[in-house]
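1st attempt posting a full record on here, be nice pls
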Amino acid sequence: TWKYKVMASAKDTIVQTHSRIKMSLIVLLIFGTIGFFILDVVLFNNLAIKNVFLISTSGSLRSKVVAIAYLFRSKMVEAHHNDHEKMHHIAVQIREIADDIRLEHAHDYQQAYGATLDYFQTPHSPTQAVYGSEWVEEELSYWAAVNLFARWASAASTISMSDLNDPDFTLERMPETKKYIASMYQNVWRHVLPQIEDVVLRYRREVGQFSGTASLVSDVNLSFNGIVICAIAFYVLRAIAIIVDSMQSKYVTTLCALSMPPQTKSKISKFYDKIERS
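the predicted structure (as tokens):
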């Protein structure tokens, strides 16, 4: 039969174009899904939210370090007024805050990665502490410096009223609890708080970097989608040009006549010949 031969090439073009469009749409869907996964799961949930949370916890850590410094001042004032009950209450507060500092600092350390993790593990500024009868300077990492401050605060919270009221700050005669307080105040403003501020700034910079990365992923995704859509339009327009050219009536009629059986072609020829003669 001849019906399968009429416009066979046009049909093949349509089938090929349809297949190309489907493949392009599948690629578009896959690439869009990958871009969404990178933006939502990797950058937003795993990195951006975590860093915003770490900024919050680091800010809380900073306020608790300052709170301990002011609580020791209040404890000294209460010792001056001989108020044992308030001194005990402040000591409990100091130990609770010191425990919170250790827990939050450990959590931040576990969540840190990359350059921030290196900052936790690397010494940045010398720490001065009283050992025996002299000041000793140590190079401690940020991780060790904050933990040491919390340990000093917790141990110094048990200082007695008589030791706090004693005006003698000679290193050789100071009790251990008083040495802890001296070491704590020597470092809290010079070394501990500046390092916490540096960590917060690092987290903020990383959030800014994530914003730039997210914009880059969005731009790449948008550009790729535009290229795929242009490719689909190209396939459609090229197929239309081929099909329309193949659908010209004279060309189709000629192919139809040539594809007919000899007897049918003879009858059609006689019919048109008769019309022309009449």
